Every structure is written in C-alpha cells, then in structure tokens.
Amino acid sequence: MKQKDDFRVDGSGLIRRRKIMAWTDEIHFDEEGLVPVIVQDAKTERVLMFGWANREALERTVATGKGVYFSKSRGQVWVKGASSGNEQHVVGMQLDVSGEAVIYRVEQVGGVACHTGHVSTFWRELHSGGWVESEPVIRDPQEMYHQSSL
C-alpha cells in the first residue's frame, strides 16, 4: 500500500508525522490492474456506458475532469470524446463498498455516449428472447467522427 507523509501541527505546536493512503490505494484493481467503471449522467442518473480504468486513467480523470479509460482491446489509456467530440466532464466519482467498482458521474457533451450515435451504450433490450433496438440513433456516427478530424 503506497503511503505518503503528512505533517500536521498539533495543539502543542509540535509537528507530528502520520502516514496517509493515496486515494487509489483503496481501489481493488483486478489481476490486470483494472477496475470496472460505470458511467452515469449526473443529472438524470441514467447509465451511459461501462468501461475499464487503470490507476493512470483514474488519476488523469481526477486531474483533468474528463472521462479517461483503459481500452482492453487496444491496451492503452484513452479519453472519451477525443475523436468524436463527445467528451465527458466528470463532476463526481464514487467507489462501491468493496472497492471493486467505480462510478463516474458525468455531463455528457453532445448528448451521445455511444460510438453508434445512441445516448447510451445500453440501447438494446431483451424482448421475446431476442435483443431489439430500444432507442433511436440521435447522431450519425460518420458525421461525429468526420467533424472531429477537421
């Protein structure tokens, strides 16, 4: 467990040193060094997406206020909206009771969290034994990604 020194002056004027934990030390990362991240709209409380974060992604999220994640398929840290313009402004972060999952509470820029142009990545529902699209596309993905590269 990483700790850093914290110096405090007590009531007698003596400087006392104590160890404090880094906030990320309370997170239980899996064997790959990752923790699940649930992304929730700060106003509506709707779940927008699910992702993964490593220690670097979490620290960058706190430092920048933007949603930063770890891509398992690409093996690298990425910033939501870097190529589409659909950034996430993180206004709060929560840790579950066991320290095994994190929630980012966000303001979703552009109203789209999914690369398909849907508000949420959870746009399919189970009906009669099959998955059906339950929400419309609100932004054309080709336009989103074309505009951000200009």
Describe this structure in words.
Keywords: Amino-acid biosynthesis, Histidine biosynthesis, Hydrolase. GO terms for molecular function: phosphoribosyl-AMP cyclohydrolase activity; phosphoribosyl-ATP diphosphatase activity. It catalyses: 1-(5-phospho-beta-D-ribosyl)-5'-AMP + H2O = 1-(5-phospho-beta-D-ribosyl)-5-[(5-phospho-beta-D-ribosylamino)methylideneamino]imidazole-4-carboxamide. Its EC number is 3.5.4.19. The strands form four sheets. The protein has a four-stranded mixed beta sheet, with helices on one face. β3 and β4 (47-53) form a beta hairpin. With 150 residues, the protein is mostly beta strands. It has one domain (27-112, 127-148): Ubiquitin-like (UB roll), CATH 3.10.20.810. The chain has two helices and ten strands, in the order ββββαββββββα.
